[in-house]
Amino acid sequence: MVNYRRNLLPGATFFFTVTLADRRSTALTTHIDILRQAFRATRREMPFQIDAIVILPDHLHTIITLPAGDAHFPQRWRHIKTGFTRSVLQSGTLLPQRDATGRTLWQRRYWEHTIRDENDFARHADYIHYNPTKHGLAPTPAAWPYSSLHRFIRAGAVPPDWGQGATFEGAFGEPREG
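-> structure tokens emitted (178 positions)
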């Protein structure tokens, strides 16, 4: 078995890719209000800052910053995933059976990368915001409703037509196709 090593750095900023077990699922966007509630509930109990985020039908990317002295992002992801799954089940949605341990919605693991500096942050935020266009879900990044790009535009950090005609290369936590 692989021994996963997490960089539990207090107060750090991290990029995450978190994926549903069924990559054909649309549960994250179908139940966007439930997902938002799971994030809000987790942030009330275990604060963190969402610096950038995009929610796609079957996965999400986010950059979060933890409070000073706090390195416990695994507990936050467990809380978000559990809260979302529980609420989706309560809504009457059936989930596939994983094994004898119960039903699953999420992949067990997630991708995590410690943001090193401002350039690394900008590169990952660009990737996050371009992701819906990369996956063919929106003709332009600003056309996707479940993205912090809209907050960046309102703040004047990027223009309203940001990302049109652009591509972003690199390994950001998704398997390479081809």
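The helical segments are 27-30, 32-45, 73-90, 118-134, 149-154.
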